[in-house]
Amino acid sequence: MVLTRVKIFIAILAMVILPDFPANTRSLSPLERKLAQLRMVEDVGEGDEEDRHDGHSQWSGFSLAVADWKYGALRLPLCLRWSVSHSTLISRVSVYSLS
């Protein structure tokens, strides 16, 4: 409960401190604001075109990731942690005793 309150406080603080767009940021000079807006206009859709013309599908990217040994090394601790927490959760939720 305490951690939730801390996270909510940090989120509200970030909403006040962090700027949304260059147009409403007070810390930028007019020249920097104009440059930032120009860069945002130039960046629109650029990532989408690179992905489209790459020649790789999502499936090929997934198969490359699964084939890499580092994927398994990173996934193993997550699976072990899930199995421990899952068995604890099931034992607490279980209504019927096995004995």
Describe this structure in words.
- With 99 residues, the chain is mainly alpha-helical.
- The protein has 2 domains: 2-55, no CATH class; 69-99, no CATH class.
- It is built from 5 helices and no strands.
- The longest helix is centred in the C-terminal third of the chain and has 25 residues, at 69-93.
- The chain is flat, with a radius of gyration of 24 Å.
- The two termini are 35 Å apart.
- The model has no long low-confidence stretch (mean pLDDT 77).
Number of domains: 2
Beta-strand content estimate:
under 5%
How big is the Rg?
24 Å
Number of strands: 0
Outline:
flat
Spell out the helices and strands N to C: HHHHH
Q: How is this fold's topology laid out?
A:
Elements: H1 2-17, H2 30-43, H3 46-52, H4 58-67, H5 69-93
Main attributes of the structure:
flat, single chain, 99 residues, mainly alpha
Task: Please give a quick description of this structure.
With 99 residues, the chain is mainly α.
